Please model this.
Amino acid sequence: MKEIEYAAATSVDEAVGLLAARGEKARVMAGGTDIIVQLREGLRDADLIVDVKKIPELTQYTYDPVRGLRLGASVPCYKIYRDAKIVAAYPALTDAARIIGGWQIQSRASIGGNLCNSSPAADSIPALIAQDAKCTIAGPNGRRTVPVAEFCTAPGRNQLARGELLVTIEFPPVTQREGASYLRFIPRNEMDIAVVGAGAWLRLNDKDDTIAAARVALAAVAPKPLAATEVGAWLVGKPATAATFAEAGDRARALAKPISDMRGPAEYRVHLVGVMTARAFTAAAERAKK
Amino acid sequence: MVKKSHVTTTINGEAVEFLCEPRQSLLEVLRDTLHLTGAKEGCNNGNCGACTVILDGVPVNSCLVLGVEAEGSKITTIEGVAGESHLHPLQQCFLEDAALQCGICTPGFIVAAKALLDRNPKPSEHDIRFELAGNLCRCTGYDKIIRAVQDAAAVLQENRS
Model:
């Protein structure tokens, strides 16, 4: 790696100050599992690394059944999937956290880092969109909130402007009879990048098993994580059956615009969108019924 | 030239201080500065797990940690796994079960498996395969490694009872 400066900020204001002063030449580091490789391999450039693992607001998470989950941007993945309360409340999030790299990666890598790396194939982002998560961003002009569904703008790019830092990701409180799931297809058992990923969330009506509300988002089938809002809207009022979820998969396929690359041809990915969408909703519905 | 940082850590139970540049990984510091060459550089990008060390209780790829990030931390490397006069059961079982051929991946596997058994003393085969997915071996086909970890778990269980 080329010579670089390192600063471990201890407050959001300090980090924002460093990022604002250095602009494009400064990069935030949470777990470092992406940025260290990118700097080493020349995929991204920086003169200064701003380590955000010493900022209390970013390293903690708080969960309250009434208020929901507030997840600091640098909390490593393993901490959230080891917390039974978080697994029960936000299972799509913890499904994703459990399969980002192996254990060694999960010991360092954070959901916030996965989001800010903004890969179209990121495992956590469809799960965040499905769970209706919002980002709190701090910058030189104060704080703003952006839905995760609107955060990414292009491969490796997002809404963060000069001096801005992702502080927390907020999840709404969980209501009765809702379930969520994130599934991805990879040719290996573990440790691979999604060929297609699908995050699904739904809530069932009390009286019957019809769907009250639903969301689905997809990885690796568009230049950025794809929120398939039309599919979620179509599902409202439908029975939570295999036939419904198969049709949801067909409708998701129509929205996918994948490219062909080393992980799979576009046609194969489009097919997988149907399969993974149906499976993710089936798993989400099973969890909703528990 | 960028100024070197002074870093204070505990490595394998001993207080260790070192100087490093921000660009240097913990793996580079361990191997080149501290001459702890047990952790191996395989891929240097977080795929292979050959550089696994335990950092504050959790296994990490030391190639993806900067030396400066280790300030104040407790680190266990493969050099700290054995007892004074005897191998750790994992090391003994890897030998007895022939769970290695070229041996490059072995330190990483043993350190990761130690982290696993410290947390989950009775892992199923599935647990072992899942938790060690971050360690790659191009020689054994994994079966002997899985068996060695199972055997070591049994030995550790016996030693406890």
In short: The helical segments of chain B are 26-33, 89-96, 106-119, 125-131, 143-160. The interface with chain A takes residues 1-2, 5, 21-25, 44-47, 49, 52, 55, 58-61, 63-66, 68-69, 112, 115-116, 129-135 of chain B (CB under 8 Å). The radius of gyration of chain B is 16 Å. Chain B has two domains: 5-80, 89-160.
